[in-house]
Amino acid sequence: MGTNEPPMKTMDIIQAILAALSVLLTAVYAFLTYKILHANKKQITSSIRPYVYFDLRLSGGSVEAFLKNSGKTGAYDVKIDIEPPLQVAIRGGPRPACLTASKIPLLFPEQEICEYLESYHELTQRVAEPVFTGKIEYRDAEGNSHKESFRCDLTVLKDLAHIAQPDVAEELKRVADRLSEIQRSIDNIGKFNR
Predict the structure, then answer these.
(1) Do residues 83 and 150 both lie within one domain?
(2) CATH for 148
(3) Which residues pair with 109 in a beta bridge?
(4) pLDDT tens-digit profile of 87-104?
(5) pLDDT digits over 151-180, tens only?
(6) Who contacts 57 (Cβ-Cβ below 8 Å, separation ≥6)?
(7) How many domains does the chain have?
(8) How many CA atoms lie within 13 A of 158 on its CB side?
(9) Which of 28, 104, 151, 163 is the most buried (most CB within 10 A)?
(10) In what order do the strands lie in the sheet containing 145-153?
């Protein structure tokens, strides 16, 4: 047969096809393994990062700003931008709320910060429609930036009945008056025992 090579046998063709299929399946397996590992890494990373959220809530007749890190790691340089701006109405008049006026350097895992703002009545006098929108920006320990948007709609609270919290000065006056009454009663008991 000299220069002419013999035709490929059927078994050789089958082996070549199986080898090609084996290479193809190995490549698909490697690709899928890579995708699974990448998804697992992403899931693990997202489960251990900080998650910071902001809300406004009503406590008695007062509005409070509430910030919490519900994540597993600390949140750094937490900054809150909110419209309309929040104000605190104590000690000589309105001033910007501390939670929104400057960055919070570190918010530990599960840490909560709550700030009294003003009464709901004062808020609705100052803001025509008590709907607040904004975003929270912060970094994780690795330096990755995160942003969360929020919307706080307090209009639903407008017609709710609230038990007002007593004025502290009035309560202290009542306590002092009651203590005076008790002191007089004790003095009277002492006079009868002599």
Answers:
(1) yes
(2) 2.60.40
(3) none
(4) 888 776 788 999 999 999
(5) 999 887 666 655 555 666 777 888 888 889
(6) 63, 64, 66
(7) 2
(8) 10
(9) 104
(10) 104-107, 75-83, 131-139, 145-153
Cα distance between residue 187 and residue 193, in whole Å: 10
Q: Are residues 111 and 27 in the same domain?
A: no
130 vs 5 pLDDT, higher one: 130
Which DSSP string corresponds to the chain?
-TTSPPPPPHHHHHHHHHHHHHHHHHHHHHHHHHHHHHHHHHHHHHHSS--EEEEEEEETTEEEEEEEE-SSS-EEEEEEEEESPPEEE-SSSEEE-HHHHS-EEEE-TT-EEEEEEEEHHHHHHH-SS-EEEEEEEEE-TT--EEEEEEEEE-GGGTT----PPPPHHHHHHHHHHHHHHHHHHHHHHHHHT-
Are residues 112 and 79 both part of a single domain? yes
Contact 46, 39 (CB under 8 A): no
For residues 48-75, average pLDDT? 91
Q: Within a domain: residue 167?
A: no
- The 3-state secondary structure of 6-53 reads CCCCHHHHHHHHHHHHHHHHHHHHHHHHHHHHHHHHHHHHHHCCCCEE
Same-domain status, 86 and 118: yes
Which is nearest to 67 in space by CA: 182, 124, 148, 127? 148
Q: Taking the chain, what is the end-to-end CA distance rounded to the nearest angstrom?
A: 144
